[in-house]
Amino acid sequence: MDGSYNMWVSGVCEPSAAECGRAHIAAQAAEGELLRNGFADAPFDLCLLFCLSYCCQALHAMNLPFRATFKFVSHKFGVINIIIILAGAIALIIGFGISGKHFITVRTFTSAGNIGEDGILSCTFEPDIKLNGIVIQWLKEGTMGLVHEFKGGKDDFSQQHEMFRGRTAVFADQVVVGNASLRLKNVQLTDAGTYTCYIRTSKGKGNANLEYKTGAFSVPEINVDYNASSESLRCEAPRWFPQPTVAWASQIDQGANFSEVSNTSFELNSENVTMKVVSVLYNVTINNTYSCMIENSIAKATGDIKVTDSEVKRRSQLQLLNSGPSLPVSSVFLVIWALLSLSTCLMLR
């Protein structure tokens, strides 16, 4: 990158399309780094290279010599205003397609993985029927190498990190309709973290982050405990992690505290990570509905039971917490974000 920048400083972009073309190729690499890491955290020369190269392309597109224009503007307006003008030129280039590229909308869905089971990291993008031109890259913050890559219509594992070897796959038949979701086999506790879904198509490029939590959660089952000396209910859930809280509730005695008439235990499972949850509620009454609620930072599960003289009715449900779609990022928003971040990058120097 330093060599490309030095070429700019020494030549100040001679008024030939070839010179600007060579610098623009280097700037495309800079663009990828700026998009991933943010303009505010980028080195000054990277920001300047990105800015100058696109402005040079714009000036050539309008048949204006870069050197003469640069000297005139610097003499007339000063360096600070040049920076503002260059930033404005970037907005024009990105917003109106002078460079022939634009951002595409990428959406992710924050979710949780159940340890030992398969999980899905959800990601969608603007569909593109040109399958061979679609590139999907999944990256994990703090991990060298890729989580997964799909390009040329097939998976490419050449740069995949070894911790994900043999555990990832995209839904290849759904890529052309905009599905870049990643299937992660045998979810591990260490899979938790921040992931980036990066997309490049013939229409443009874009990315979105995803927070992936890992743990263990399961639906509880409630049964009448006939072994107890009094009428009691037994609530069991086979796998939870981190250790959850357990609470009982009653439809008739709403708001009552059942902690003194219940006993909860946690039994570590054979893999020494997840635990079995067992809670017993004593002194229950007939014709009443009781609920056993289990909750940790990842999920909340509820088991309901109603015991009458003639039958036992059960119901259970599981809800993942803090899950939902990320905010879609439009091209207009990205242009504004780029300008604000670039201004911050330059002002902090």
UniProtKB/TrEMBL annotation:
Residue spans crossing the bilayer: 42-66, 78-98, 327-348
Lineage, highest ranks first: Eukaryota, Metazoa, Chordata, Craniata, Vertebrata
Free-text function comment from the UniProt entry: Negatively regulates T-cell-mediated immune response by inhibiting T-cell activation, proliferation, cytokine production and development of cytotoxicity. When expressed on the cell surface of tumor macrophages, plays an important role, together with regulatory T-cells (Treg), in the suppression of tumor-associated antigen-specific T-cell immunity. Involved in promoting epithelial cell transformation.
This protein's UniProt keywords: Adaptive immunity, Cell membrane, Disulfide bond, Glycoprotein, GPI-anchor, Immunity, Immunoglobulin domain, Lipoprotein, Membrane, Repeat, Signal, Transmembrane, Transmembrane helix
Keyword 4Fe-4S: no
Species, as recorded: Cricetulus griseus (Chinese hamster)
Name this protein carries in UniProt: V-set domain-containing T-cell activation inhibitor 1
Pfam family, one: C2-set_3
Major subcellular site: membrane
GO MF annotation terms: signaling receptor binding
PANTHER family: BUTYROPHILIN, V-SET DOMAIN-CONTAINING T-CELL ACTIVATION INHIBITOR 1
Limits of the Ig-like domain: 116-211, 220-308
Membrane topology: Lipid-anchor; GPI-anchor
InterPro entries in the cross-refs: BTN3A2-like_Ig-C, Ig-like_dom, Ig-like_dom_sf, Ig-like_fold, Ig_sub, Ig_V-set, IgSF_BTN/MOG
Family: Belongs to the immunoglobulin superfamily. BTN/MOG family.
Subcellular location: Cell membrane
One Gene Ontology term from the biological process aspect of the record: adaptive immune response
Signal peptide range: none
Keyword Lipoprotein: yes
SUPFAM superfamilies: Immunoglobulin
